[in-house]
Design a protein that fits this description.
Layout: H1 3-24, E1 29-30, H2 31-40, H3 47-59, E2 63-68, E3 75-80, H4 82-114
Antiparallel strand pairs: 1-3, 2-3
Helix pairs in contact: 1-4
Pfam families: PadR
Domain Transcription regulator PadR N-terminal: 25-86
InterPro entries: Metal_resp_DNA-bind_regulator, Tscrpt_reg_PadR_N, WH-like_DNA-bd_sf, WH_DNA-bd_sf
Length: 118
């Protein structure tokens, strides 16, 4: 993959990881389990990218966290806040609107190339 395409794909995926993380963390989870869940869903994100993102979302008030010390190794669990839920819903709606608009543009462009009109 060339550097130009790679850069554009990274830029496109960056925002989707935020939305996916906020949605997944509506059920409390810790960083590593979030990485696994995102990976299974097709979101390739590195730990060194995800953990700073989680801290940023927490600083913005979109996530809360607490330490679970019940197990041998303490784990920090994250949960989406009410504000995070609202933002996730808004971002998801906007994503759907943008996807539809791009689909319409692609369809119009394809029709223009074939000489037909809607």
């Amino acid at each position: 993959m060339d550097a130009t395409l790679s850069g554009h794909l990274q830029e496109l995926r960056r925002g989707t990881v935020v939305v996916a993380s906020l949605i997944v963390l509506r059920t409390p989870g810790y960083g590593y389990s979030l990485l696994e869940t995102l990976s299974r869903a097709g979101f390739e994100v590195e730990a060194n990218t995800l953990y700073p993102l989680l801290r940023r979302l927490e600083a913005q008030g979109l996530l809360t966290s607490e330490w679970n010390t019940d197990e041998a190794r303490p784990r920090k669990f994250y949960r989406t806040t009410e504000q995070g839920d609202a933002i996730a819903d808004t971002l998801r709606s906007e994503w759907t609107r943008i996807d539809s608009a791009i689909g319409d543009i692609a369809k119009t462009t394809a029709n223009d190339k074939t000489g037909s009109a809607e």
